[in-house]
Design a protein that fits this description.
Radius of gyration: 32 Å
CATH superfamily of the largest domain: NAD(P)-binding Rossmann-like Domain
Shape: elongated
Number of domains: 3
Number of strands: 10
Order of helices and strands: HHHHEHEEHEHEHEHHEHEEE
Distance between the termini: 12 Å
CATH topology of the largest domain: Rossmann fold
CATH architecture of the largest domain: 3-Layer(aba) Sandwich
Strand content: 5-15%
Number of helices: 11
Length: 390
């Protein structure tokens, strides 16, 4: 499947609030963080100079460590970062020493925190994006612990054409991604800060040109999580009017909201509770079925999975049984497949009986069970070979 990804430039995304007081506080903190290291150095210098002058004047003639200016400056520097071996003799000198000790501890902690925040900010800025050009990528709305496993699945080693992933979430500090040097699955993973129900945020993530959008349940919303997912689907539908819309897959908490999500624009709806309950029912009747479903749902090397493949023009009009036998005759390598059904519009035709499927149509999709994902441009593993694709 051909893909074209254009270049983009990374920058942090600033999201403001509507509260004036909070805006003032955030602005003050932002201004303080700017050139923070220089401010800390300046604060240390001021404390050092004034502390040296104060202790020299207060302790001169009573304490040998502060008898001269050079001794005072040296010992105050030591006091700021490690304390004094000999305490001051005068009350005023002890007061200066207490202030300097507290100042030293505070400045040391502030310096450590600043360095840590610079490193964290640098890591986030490598991931955060604001304005970029990207096509045919994957968009993940909302974030949770399962997001890491989802990224590892879609960027599995056996996926030949890995698509970039853009995460939309309003609390980016919750997103702790492994470094791509430690885990290659997190190459081409980027973050857009904001609410996925906001159309502006969706446009920043280039949802209109995405291949797929996946909406995870926002656990923070609790019983209203499906409501937020519905609003997200509506926002995606609204910004994609008049354009080709990406496939929208939504995780549903309450199966009763399935029809509402469909009306809002969801293409595929996954209810973890519903799937889990059905799986438990199947395993209660047919023991060991969990291993079968786990094999089919696991993305991994030598794991069999089901794929949808567009019908090649050579197969249009042929019978399902004839096409199935063409796949069955090819069993020589890992590319071999089993044809188990057809996807025809909204209808799923699995294991059709007799002439139930009828002649294969041009807009049908083959449902194949295979260890290897077949690209649309590849020849089908059939006998005789099918070399032309639609």
């Amino acid at each position: 499947m051909p893909q074209k990804f254009s270049s983009f430039r990374k920058s942090a995304i600033e999201v403001t609030t509507s509260r004036p007081l909070r805006d003032l506080v955030l602005a003050a903190l932002h201004n303080w963080n700017r050139n923070q290291v220089l401010r800390i150095v300046a604060a240390i210098s001021v404390a050092w100079v004034f502390g040296s002058i104060g202790l020299h004047l207060a302790e001169q003639g009573t304490h040998s460590d502060f008898e001269t200016w050079s001794e005072s400056f040296f010992n105050v520097w030591v006091l700021l970062f490690s304390g004094l071996d000999n305490s001051p003799k005068t009350t005023l000198g002890r007061f200066f020493a207490m202030v300097l000790l507290g100042t030293g501890v505070g400045l040391a902690g502030l310096f450590t925190g600043t360095v840590a925040s610079v490193l964290v900010e640098h890591q986030l800025r490598r991931r955060d994006v604001s304005h970029f050009e990207m096509d045919d990528h994957l968009v993940l709305c909302n974030w949770g612990p399962r997001g890491l496993a989802w990224i590892r699945e879609v960027h599995s080693k056996i996926i030949q054409d890995k698509r970039p992933v853009v995460i939309i979430h309003d609390e980016t500090e919750q997103i702790d991604l492994p470094d791509h040097q430690d885990d290659a699955a997190f190459n081409d993973v980027y973050i857009v800060k904001g609410d996925p129900t906001n159309e502006i945020i969706l446009r920043r993530a280039r949802v209109t040109t995405a291949h797929s959008v996946v909406v995870l349940v926002d656990e923070r919303q609790r019983e209203y999580a499906d409501g937020k997912s519905i609003l997200t689907c509506i926002a995606i539908r609204d910004i994609c009017k008049g354009t080709q819309r990406p496939n929208v897959a939504v995780e549903c908490r309450n199966p009763e909201n399935r029809h509402r999500l469909l009306k809002a624009g969801a293409d595929e709806i996954i209810s973890s509770d519903e799937l889990g309950l059905r799986l438990l029912a199947r395993t209660a009747i047919y023991h060991g079925m969990t291993r079968v479903y786990q094999e089919l749902l696991t993305v991994g090397r030598d794991a069999n999975e089901m794929y949808l493949y567009p019908v090649p023009s050579e197969l249009v009009g042929r019978d399902f049984v004839e096409i199935s036998s063409m796949f069955l005759r090819y069993r020589d390598d890992k590319k071999c497949c089993l044809l188990i059904g057809l996807q025809r519009g909204d209808e799923m035709i699995l294991n059709p009986i007799g002439n139930e499927a009828g002649p294969v149509k041009a807009d049908d999709q083959l449902i194949l069970l295979s260890r290897v994902f077949l690209l649309a441009a590849q020849n089908l593993p059939t006998v005789p070979p099918v070399t032309r694709t639609s």
